[in-house]
Amino acid sequence: MRGALGGPRVLLRRLREVMAEPVSAQERLDKIVVLIAANMVAEVCSVYVLRVDGRLELYATEGLKAESVHNTVLAADEGLVGLVSSEANPINLSEAQSHPAFSYRAETGEEIYHSFLGVPILRAGNTLGVLVVQNRARRTYSEEEEEALQTTAMVVAEMIASGELSAIARPGAPEPAARRPVHINGAALNDGIALGHVVLHEPRIVITNFIADDVNKEMKRLEAAIETMRSDLDVILERGEVPDAGEHRDVLEAYRMFAYDRGWQHRLSEAVMTGLTAEAAVERVQSDTRARMLRATDPYLRERLHDLDELSNRLMHQLLGQDYTPPRDRLPENAVIVARSMGPAALLEYDRKRLRGLVLEEGGPNSHVAIVARALGIPAVGEIANATGLADPGDPIIVDGATGDVHVRPSPDMEAAYVERVRLRARRQLQYLALRDKPCVTKDGVPVTLLLNAGLAVDLPHIEETGAAGIGLFRTELQFMVAATLPRTAEQFSLYRAVLDAAGDKPVTFRTLDIGGDKVLPYMRNEEEENPALGWRAIRLGLDRPGLLRSQIRALLRAAGGRVLKLMFPMIAAVEEFDEAKGLVERELTHLRRHGHKLPDRVEVGTMVEVPSLLYQLDELIERVDFLSVGSNDLLQFFYAADRGNKRVSARFDPLSAPMLRVFQAIVSKSDAKRKPVTLCGELASTPLGALALVAIGYRSLSVAPSAVGPVKAMLLELDAGKAGKLLGPLIDSPAASVPIRERLKAFAAEQGLQI
């Protein structure tokens, strides 16, 4: 009788030898099934490979009829093999033919076999095929045997994933699914088309050595890495930067519990004892776990998958002696970032010159990372389930930011079609460019001012390129988010001066720091809050930390010496907050006068309208401000109590609904009555349909993403604003939800020949 663990180790050593032999893919696969059958004393060993058409094809067998290879094809849910594939779980039976899922295929000759053990061939949680052993005798395979087969399946998975088996597919038959083209539809975050290659935001470790030379040595490496990882986590949690109580603390403690989970460590140890390297053991355990949890219906379990993924990644980096956070300043050409989730600062860390697109598993159209993507002009798609598991680094990928389509490993025909679309878009951009110097006036003579949303030095050339009338929203926080340390007053001064110089005689409206929520500064202590979007952020933080706000105001006033300075405050919820913030501006003006600095010719102070409470203070507010700017993103979020970063609710409410349009209309009507300028600078204005609605209800100044200037301007030049107003007025006054306003506007645009 073999030693308890001798069998699997011998098998893995022999497998390594077979993998290194210079033979064809079919010969290699045939040798593998013979090895497995001999090692496990099984009369049958078969490899079924999942094809691009979703069916399972027998690619190699020892024990079944030789002529059934490449001729036996099962539906994805057919028989026990199909059940293993669809459930991504092993099935171990002493009498397979009595199982309700058993499917008899005469061409295989398997009717004489009774016992059955099938395991999924998994990679990154995705099923690539099924590995099966069978015996005539009625027996239940031991845990050791099941473990050995799972380990072997991992080696076979890499063989399939490499594309090696594509060469032995029958002529005309579908290829293996591992490298198949994948098409997924998600949420469109930013328009544009990107053709490039995948770069994982938190890349999976590529394992080159699966089979251990010394199991005891690998076990010691695993134990040492686990201990170091746990110590690091303990240090992070006990550092004193995290408050001691609250739900957030419970979450962090639960995360630490995963790291100390004995069951998890036991599964890792078992995988090493079968003959795997420590790295391969981590990969195998996590792939099995991911496959099961992706199929779970419990949302809590699915959320915990992220925790386990991160722990596994930490452990893998520990084993390889790599930093957990990979360098992002060196990208390949035409890089498309694929990530589970990402904060706005993380995107800014990448080399903009090489960045072509963004794909997220999480993140809605109004999330801050989506806004940054729009500011950078990067095509982006969100809500792509398991995006990081479907794509490997270097895979060709197409991102269609207009439709929300993502194509991983696209077919040549699909790629050619998109190349042509890119050419058409380029020609359209030339048409927009021809409109650059043309005044933005509607068909019936209504002038509309088109301004830019910006936030970085890279945005400044867009003023000239687009022919925009100026910058309607300069997000000053982006400079703070990309900096390693808090920007000094002199550094802020330099940026603000450069912005004003680039704009020339065109106006620039600076928004003071809007940090907090998901806009976290890496060098500032992050205050854990249960609801950060409604918490200590924006003007609230600035008024509580007046030194921070005053230094920024001072830099802005100095940079605008001899010019007009337009300054506005974010997230004002009460007129008293505006009065306090404006008081800081007056104090800084007094300070600069006293020290002989050149002052702006004129200072205009306004505020963002983003908090619904201001709707009931508009009369008092308008008396105090020089101008208003409507932030449609946050206003929509707070108006409907729908977190814009939560995909379950972010698209639930339409900004072109009657209630929301009534709000927008009330703001512009009261501002016009008091002769106070008002601009809408949210993302709604960056869509031609949204701009159409806003102009129809009275807005004459819109601040949009640089990429939106051309399409919005082209639409406005052909728009009869009077007709649009007559259409929209009665629709807004109708009972809420009684009329689908968006659809009516689309029909109107089609009748008028407007491109939306």
For the terminal residues, how far apart are their CA atoms?
Answer: 75 Å
Major sheet details:
8 strands, mixed
What is the domain tally? Answer: 4
CATH homologous superfamily label of the largest domain: Phosphoenolpyruvate-binding domains
Taking all residues together, what is the mean pLDDT? 85
**What's the alpha carbon Rg, rounded to whole Å?**
31 Å
Predict the CATH topology of the largest domain: TIM Barrel
Which consecutive residue ranges, at least 5 long each, have pLDDT under 50? 1-6, 245-249
Report the principal-axis shape: elongated
Structure description:
With 756 residues, the chain is α/β, with parallel strands linked by helices. The protein folds into four domains: 6-179, GAF domain (Beta-Lactamase, 2-Layer Sandwich), CATH 3.30.450; 182-203 and 327-422, Glucose Oxidase, domain 1, CATH 3.50.30.10; 215-320, PtsI, HPr-binding domain (Enzyme I, Chain A, domain 2, Orthogonal Bundle), CATH 1.10.274.10; 444-752, TIM Barrel (Alpha-Beta Barrel). It contains 26 helices and 22 strands. The strands form three sheets. It has an eight-stranded mixed sheet with strand order 7-14-13-9-10-11-12-8. An eight-stranded parallel sheet has the order 21-20-19-18-17-16-15-22. β18 (564-569), α19 (575-594) and β19 (602-609) form a beta-alpha-beta unit. α1 (6-20) runs parallel beside α4 (143-161). The longest helix has 24 residues, at 215-238. Mean pLDDT is 85; it is low at 1-6 and 245-249.
